[in-house]
Amino acid sequence: QQQDDEQYYATQFLNQAKNHSSEVHTSCLTFLLDTVENTDYAWNLRRGAQNILQQLLLRSKDCRELFANDRMRRYIAVISEGRGRAENHSAESVHLVEDVGAMLLQLSAKFGQFYPRFSVACRWLEERKGVRIAAAQSSSLDPASSITTSTGGFSIAQLRIGRDAAMLR
């Protein structure tokens, strides 16, 4: 089964790269986004595609522009819904949301001055989904780039509550 899946995805990848007239890395990005967004695929496949997607976004300006301008809103919406076919649905969906949040956090730290949408999307995920992005960082992230260092370890919602309390005084 796994070997058939790998062959199928390799064929899909080659067809996708061949059919697109744009450069290969943006075609790969589109294919990976579609794979992660497809809720019929297994969680481990979606998370694996997410990891490769992160590497593409870190290395390619064209991929970051395509993602930030065209696909990020839909991608975040699909990921935050947390649907899938796995039995341990809720745990796996949380892991995927954490992976996406960690990716957005890393992109925000490296490219936030050029792409402020990464920071906004990361904050939205943290606030709306209740996932502590800074606590969910993978080992590949630089600890200096976490939200906890810039906000003192509080979530955005907690910072807003503190701000409102200070304004009342």
From TrEMBL:
Classification of source organism: Eukaryota, Sar, Stramenopiles, Ochrophyta, Bacillariophyta
Name of the protein this chain belongs to: Exportin-T
Organism: Leptocylindrus danicus
